[in-house]
Structure prediction request, 496 residues.
Amino acid sequence: MTEATLTWHRLPTRVLLLRVLEVIKSFIIPLVLLFVINNDWSSTFGIILRVGILLFLLLDMIQKFFGWRNFRYALDDKTMYIIDGNWIKKEKSLPLYKIQSVHSNSPFLYRLLSVVELTFDTNANSDDASFKLAGVLPREAQRLEDILDQSRQRKTETEPALEGETVETVTEKPAGVMLYALSTREIIIASLTSLSVFAIFPVASTVVSSIDDFINLDGTFDQVGEWVISASIIAIGVLVLTVLFLSVIIGMVINFLKYGNFQLERRGDRIRVEKGLLNRSAKEIPYEKIQAIRIKETFIRRWFNIVGVELVAAGTMDELKDESSTILPFVKRDKAMSVLNEHFNQFTWADTLHRLPTRSLWIKLMRISWFGLIISGVVLYFFRDYAWWLLLLWGIIIGGRVLSYMTTRYARNEDFIELRTGAFNVRSFLTDKPRIERIEVTQTPLQRRFGLCDVQLSTRGGLLSVESVEDIPRQEADAMLAWFSRYNVQHTKRQG
Prediction:
């Protein structure tokens, strides 16, 4: 590394303040409990606990200081260089052409200090597949993104000339094309049709658990229990309605903070997703890395024809995979299909899908539900008075299997294969033959009697992404194997 010839950059000084605030934020609950609410220095254990926490905070802040002081980065025309490390310095370099996408993230503290976190994603699946610049000024973030855009768009063409010169053509940075933006109405409807309305319960549980670690709340719980026993039905009803109302409000707030100002854009050969109010994030997915499309439908949202759309992308970082792959979190099905057909026309959806034969339903109903048998045995042995609840349990189990039979569909359309699976929650999957890593067919002895089998498709999405369809006719599975014959097909049998 020719360090003297490079222009090295440090993170701004305000990043040091940011890291100190992050340390304090992670310890805010024990600090308030030990130094404000229960500031008791009379016991030896209390003194040791408080001094220990202060020393740990001091050590963590010193480590953050040296991490900020030692961190530097530089770029030339082809490579990015990083010097990092808290106590031991590490040097690494990364060719710009290996950087597949740049994700920006601005949590509340970052926005408060006007800095941005940039994450550079490569096409590797190793521990060094990504690295971060945790706190650069917005203009510096824009400069780095422009440099990477120019590096990706720079094309060298060798044209026949008298002197055999090499002509370099630089393409202008493409303007962003808006594909979709979530409306306020869509976020409200999505909040009412999701489990986020029950967000108050895990939030309250976390807060109570954190407080109970330092202050015994058993007496408070006893008083609440006595009030519930002695309260009238009207009072309990009002309490339940109040809690549900607060849950709805909290769920809406959470969704607005997470998906407010949601925008889906196409910038050249990339898909860009921006979302968030307090924590603003922007993530990119290269078109060429898209391996498949998933459409998800939850049980409640199916009644309102609302779906979510994800992309299976190769080389996506594990820590960002779930978020970066979601391009439409909750939209009407017709709008989602309009966006997919217009802007993702490299994938073709089938007009009709094949249903499972009737014998598939019988084999689903004949399978032993070990979960149901174990629960039934426990209830019948220990809680016989509540045995009637088993009717509900087995109704859900059998109903789920019937729904799975009714929902499951599959189709092959030229080079494309489409699956629709699930029971209460349903998801559709679409990919094409060149993007499939392998097809695996499995068959149990019970399936063999009915002429059925399971098929698994594997695509490269970060790690290997697997989709499966159960209890399809054997001749259909053989047709899929023949369709995929130019690949190394693994055809195995499992013992049931």
Notes: Residues 44-70 form the longest helix (27 residues). The radius of gyration is 28 Å.
